[in-house]
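Kindly review both lines to help learners:
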Amino acid sequence: MALPAHPLRIAGSLARARLGRSVPLKVTHLLTYHCNVECGFCTRIHVPSDHMAPDQVVSMMGAFARMGTKWWVFNGGEPTLINPLGEYIETGKKLGFNLSMVTNGTRIEHRLDELCALDLVICSIHGDEAEHDRVVGRQGSYAAALRGLRLLRARGVDLILLCVLNDKNRELMEDLLQLGEELGAGVAFQPVVETRLGGAAIEPSLVPRQQAMAEAVDWLLDAKMAGRPVSCSRAYLEAVADSWPNRPFGVKCWAGRLFCEVTPEGFVVPCCSEEEYMAADRHGPTVGWEKAFAALPDRSGCQACWFKGPQELNLLLGLRPKQALRAASNLASGRMLWD
């Protein structure tokens, strides 16, 4: 993730956060829980989903911009299923956000002109064609995603492939790195993470065994050192190896203080695994977005998840010397902060 404009303002926000003031530097908007595929490890799509009206979303984006937001992520479900997505992207550009979208890639071709305004597209790819289509439960998904990704890359959009590492795709990591090299994309890995959303359980056979995870992380660290496009920080990979599968991640969490999520209905929640924290005083369209964000609980003691996005930010925002120097070096050379 590259920094948007005005890095000194971001540094100021970090300093204020360390003095106790919350600033939503990064907001992830879950546009919908609906999806056109059904990944075996995703429970979110089983959650009933309503949506805010377009004018409410535009108003929300403006409110967060005034609060200091710099990064905006469109997520879901599948965000390309939402008709006003192009309007929201245009609004984010006008507000000066660094805009990302997480997608399964199957509908990129249908919305190419709108998506080309994004700074970054993160596309879920879980192995080779056969394994990917098996995981998402829809034949042709891999081919459709690759067609769309190649079109985006030709238009200059940065790409990351996101592989949810499970016990059945460990041997396909080399294929994924080769695909990343072909597309000029980073390849990010995170383990299957069980959440409490949707009332559905992840198939136990998908959860990597401890030895398998340790071997995968060792392989990825070697690949990273060899210059392969592994878009995970060394600190993140080492923390996963040290903590998987039973121990806390072991880093202070800034969810609810420096980043948050907004559900399709407009509830502000700390992070992607805690939508159960929805409450009346955190419903932005009703109470106002500033009040909703200010009402978030302190989650600094939560160290239990392995989600890559929040934990990379937590490691970076911890300002440990090694991570800070690496991020500064990456920024100076135009790479992602945690490459």
